[in-house]
Design brief:
Blueprint: H1 14-28, H2 41-56, H3 72-78, H4 83-88, E1 95-99, H5 105-110, H6 119-122, E2 131-136, H7 143-152, E3 157-161, H8 170-173, E4 176-181, H9 185-188, H10 192-202, E5 203-214, E6 231-234, E7 240-241, H11 243-247, E8 253-260, E9 267-274, E10 284-290, E11 296-301
Parallel strand pairs: 1-2, 1-4, 2-3, 4-5, 6-11
Antiparallel strand pairs: 5-9, 6-7, 8-9, 10-11
Bound molecules: S-adenosylmethionine.
Length: 303
Amino acid sequence: MRSVKSPLQGWNTAGTRLAVLIVIVLQALGLTAGWPQEPAQPRIDEEIAKQEKIYRSQGAEVPSGYVTNRALSDYAGLLLSGFCDALGGLGNADRWLDIGAGSGQAILDYYAPEDEAAPAEKCARSGAKARAVAMSIEDRRTDKWREQAASLGGDRIRYLYGKRLRDYSLEELGKFQIITDVFGGFTYTENLSLFVEKVLSLLEIGGVFYTLMPGVYLENGKDRLGILYLTELEDAVGRREKVCSWLKKTACVKVTCESKSDWKRPTELINIRKVCSDVSVPRLKLWEFEAGYPPARRFQVVQ
Ligand SMILES: C[S@@+](CC[C@H](N)C(=O)[O-])C[C@H]1O[C@@H](n2cnc3c(N)ncnc32)[C@H](O)[C@@H]1O
């Protein structure tokens, strides 16, 4: 397979060094580098095809930066505090959906037998556990997953693959109390507003979506200079829009963001609680897409 670069790799030629310098100067002046007048659809299609290759990669071809086996303890460390307690508070009749689950390791940890993991690593109180659904575009199930699914029986844990979140109907998936996404579809999708709309349609009222977005303009404004952003948003008249301010314009949700300016990439930890059923997400149009892990994306708000 032709190797596909991470958007931040290869910044060492004179040309790219100059480009980085220009970005730093523009950022210092509070400006953004100009976006093209119109999205270049053939280039976007080419990049989406490259992205497919990353999803389909197996064995030695999987790029080392494309991590698909984070543990539940990693999720607890990456998501807003409160995630572990919320998961631990779910009962037998409740449901947890992990979008972009990779190998489903977080769900395996949650269901690990009592003696195999410390309670803190399982985010679970002994006894009751929610039914869990892992979703991935590509099938990354391991033997461990198959064994555990067989020994639990029924549909305590399910693994869905072969399509994207947007391709499932509400009837197929049902509703959930907790939905997580750790470097999954929220970070990878080329249709961010549709993605968020779909997630919210699958949440029960009172349910929460826990996620994060790396490489974004931070809500607290404490961005370091010279950052190469991964997900950039513009409002309808071309001004920079932060991902959290865009999400907060959604009807029927309560959005909480925590800005991490000292992480390798400026990252927003995000939690979206659905508070009523008339959800409406401000629509975004994809302007640019560059394959990677995660990809680089630019969106503009559509009026
Ligand atoms: C980098 S892996 C992350 C896996 C896991 N969450 C972890 O942290 O180890 C990205 C995952 O997101 C999935 N993914 C990307 N876009 C998706 C979408 N629109 N719908 C469902 N899954 C998606 C990929 O198939 C893959 O399983």
